[in-house]
């Protein structure tokens, strides 16, 4: 069975709950029912807007999936400011980003924390979007493959192969996130192929064939088609462009 493309918008620390309502409504007006047949669409607003976006999605019967930007691995307890997987699930969240480079670099999420978060998301019946990526220095020293496959293996250690098959992996070169620079589509396609090969070696060809691999890093309407043309790229994790309903809709409709 062919993998269905997935386009996810990571809104990061942007949009109040009222702005989020307007954004998702305006975005939905720009899509046609057939678009959702071809692409699974996910929006990841900040925690404070999740309930508002959930209400719009449900009341307007929008075929848009709700995602969250992070999670804590504990179910509950004295973790001031943290949000558990169960809390997210109760709001209708279907996808959760784990391991984003901004969480790794700014908030100290190491491989162990990412693995625990991924396990918590799976345990709550949601789908992790596992982000991996190398720095510019690592790329220039030829360490890209070792870095991204190392992050992948660390996060998936102990995860059963049938559960791996349902995962989403996002290749996001750190040097391309929010900088306006993008990886060459050929380079991104090669990185996705290496990630798929790493999954195959650890979890089998069937799991590797099922995993959806996204590209992220200054994605916009002008470059999305080139990335989507690569065999091992199944979608995109979109940052700044997902805050603009017109741009985000154009990315979702990349083939037009």
SSE topology string: EHHEHEHEHHEHHHEHHEHEH
State the helicity in percent bands: 40-55%
CATH superfamily: Aldolase class I
Instruction: Give the low-confidence spans.
Output: none
Radius of gyration: 17 Å
Q: How would you state the average pLDDT, rounded?
A: 96
Total individual domains: 1
CATH topology category name: TIM Barrel
Strand line-up of the largest beta sheet: 1-2-3-4-5-6-7-8
Helix segment count?
13
Shape-level CATH architecture: Alpha-Beta Barrel
Largest sheet: 8 strands, parallel, barrel
Characterize the overall form: globular
Strand content: 15-25%
This entry's quaternary arrangement is single chain
Secondary structure class reads alpha/beta
Number of strands: 8
End-to-end CA span: 24 Å
CATH class type:
Alpha Beta
Question: Keywords for this structure?
Answer:
eight-stranded parallel β-barrel; globular; 256 residues; TIM Barrel; 45% helix; alpha/beta; 8 strands; single chain
Q: Can you tell me about this structure?
A:
This protein is globular. The chain contains 13 helices and eight strands. Helix 12 (224-228) links the parallel strand 7 (212-215) and strand 8 (235-238). It has an eight-stranded parallel beta barrel, surrounded by five helices. The chain is α/β, with parallel strands linked by helices and 256 residues long. The chain has a single domain, classed as TIM Barrel (Alpha-Beta Barrel), CATH 3.20.20. Helices cover 45% and strands 15% of the residues.
